[in-house]
Amino acid sequence: MVVLGIETSCDDTAAAVLVDGRMASSVVSSQHAVHRPFGGVVPELASRHHLINLLPVVRAALEEAGIAIGDVEGLAVTRGPGLVGSLLVGLSAAKGMALARGLPLVGVNHLEGHLLAVFLEQPIAFPYLGLLVSGGHTSLCVADGYGRYRTVGRTMDDAAGEALDKGAKMLGLGFPGGPRIDRLAREADPAAVRFPRAVVRRGRYHFSFSGLKTSLREYLAGGTRHARSGRSPVPGPGGTLGEGAVRDVAASFQEAVVDMLVEPTFAAADELGLTRIVVSGGVSANSRLRSRMQSEAEARGVEVFFPSPRLCTDNAAMIACAGRHRLERGESDPLSIEAEAALPLGSP
Ligand code: KG4
Ligand code: ZN
After folding, report:
1. What is d(CA 126, CA 129) in angstroms, rounded to the nearest whole number?
2. Which of 13, 188, 262, 307 could form a disulfide with 29 if both were Cys (CB 3.0 to 4.6 A apart)?
3. pLDDT above 50: residue 232
4. Which residues crowd ion ligand 2, with CB under 5 Å?
5. d(CA 165, CA 184)
6. Ligand closest in space to the Cα of 162
7. Whose CA is nearest to atom 10 of ligand 1?
8. Burial track 2-18 (b if 16+ CB lie within 10 A, e otherwise)
9. Is residue 5 lining ligand 1, measured as CB closer than 6 Å?
């Protein structure tokens, strides 16, 4: 079956073609340059740019796959969660194509896309634990089978990627900051500053990053209480950090985020008796998170899987991958489905 996937939930405009589950093309048009001057995604600008980019991106995906629009047999489109204005652009375009061409359409949960992205490269046996870490989401889900998911933990405040982006902004590293922190941290000391790790008592596998953000702000304002003796890049009140110190602070901040992701994930895997973990979402491209997850998994006899980086960040191939099972069973959604900002995946 030839499936066209469309994804516009945040600031990336994406389209992809799957042929019998094989990725024939995946095109992503990033809006980073549009949002960079604002230091974060501006929803109104995001939807306007989706409007401009969507049809060229769909055409490029069809062309790269060597497929004519007439060959498409089903449509899979993200319907939530995400920015409503952004979601509406992709969903409306997909509904228009479904109506004009008489094609079946399925609305896909963006998080299900991230959970299943790994299948584009390798089969994984169910059940597995999914750690979804992106700029908009941080949650732990159990995948029992296609369409059968349970959310067992989530962030109480910021998403991990959001925390990294905000931390990077405070350090003057620009937007999106996650990849920049990742790069700088490779040549730095992650133990230079001991930032606090939050433990959420409300739920065993929940996450919280807002306290960490506050600690960084306090630290940069000249507070020395998190600094360790020895090689500590203490800025001093009102001082500015040198290049090496910025690297060390970035590495220490990233280390705290990674610790707070790794610990609840392995606790959940252990207590729920799951021996496979899939890490997905933009932050799963982080090299420190990857190596820490890998070494922790080896020590505990658990398997950990990561999609390749281009499938970790937002893309439409994962949406087509998640939608194709329903399409292949002959299912479709009515054209009355709506975009939903807070669409849950399994019970929260
Ligand atoms: O999945 P994604 O593309 O979009 C959302 O659904 O949010 O994730 C984007 C997030 C951003 O916060 C970005 O800073 C982060 O993923 N990110 C990274 C890396 N690459 C992307 N964070 C840390 N290290 C990276 N290498
Ligand atoms: Zn995402």
Report:
1. 9
2. 13
3. no
4. 134, 314
5. 14
6. 1
7. 135
8. bbbbbbbbbbbbbbbbb
9. no
